[in-house]
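=== RUN LOG ===
request id: a7f3
mode: sequence -> structure
chains: 1
length: 287
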Amino acid sequence: MNTFDAHATRAALPFDRLIPALARAFADGAQVPPRHVHTLDGGTVLIMPAWQGRFMGIKTINIFPGNAAKGLPGLFATYTLYDATTGEPLAQIDGNEITARRTAAASALAASHLARPDAHRLLVIGRGRVGSLLPGAYRAVRPIDHVTVWFRGCGIDLEAAVRAADIVSCATLATEPVVRGEWLAPGSHLDLIGSFTPQMREADDACFAGASLYVDTPEALVKSGDLLAPMSRGVFAAGDVKGTLESLCRGETPGRTEAAGRTVFKSVGTALEDLAAAMLVVTGQPP
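=== RESULT ===
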């Protein structure tokens, strides 16, 4: 069985190759059972399997928000790729790199359909591993020439930064809204990466009012507090979602249709993305 450490995994997943690989994976589809979610004191454990053709992969991801106070990352992950026809383990791959890079790539893939073609001012909210990758990912799909990074205590006025941004990308572990809809500029694109549990939120209800909403997979509608909370108050219904990454990549639903409209993309992650990234690492080819 081959082993790919963090350096080798990172080198195999440049965004100009990973984003098209994700697009092809969403267009082709895969078998993706519901993730297993287990709660521990202080953390959450996710087990995420998927298979396509002759490959099967399983990721285990441990999320412990309190690790920041200990000087540790809030997320640790492992990934094993198997031969789906025999069950033979083929590779052990650094799960942290796969998770961070495919997450940033999925946001950029969505933006390639939803952000204005001339969007060039990016605001990243959060300074974790995923946040640090977002500028590079977005530059692969949009002419980003101005990046602002906001985090608590940084001294930057968040409201002013949001108002000035063409793309606002949130990658936090927030449990209360950080972005307010009244701050978002006409024609802007809001990307919500955190809030992968019902207890977490990055955006207030007003962020969704009057915006075209897209999700990575329908699972977001039952996992994310960013969606569950406004849905419970009638801000929007599940049927108001315009599309998913699958429907966008297959050309079944349109992306942005007007320059002045606001778009919102909510992701919770999917094992399909992990599998596509792992296949790219091991074979050097997209799925």
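=== NOTES ===
The chain has two domains: 2-99+271-283, 115-266.
Residues 221 and 269 are 12 Å apart (CA to CA).
=== END ===
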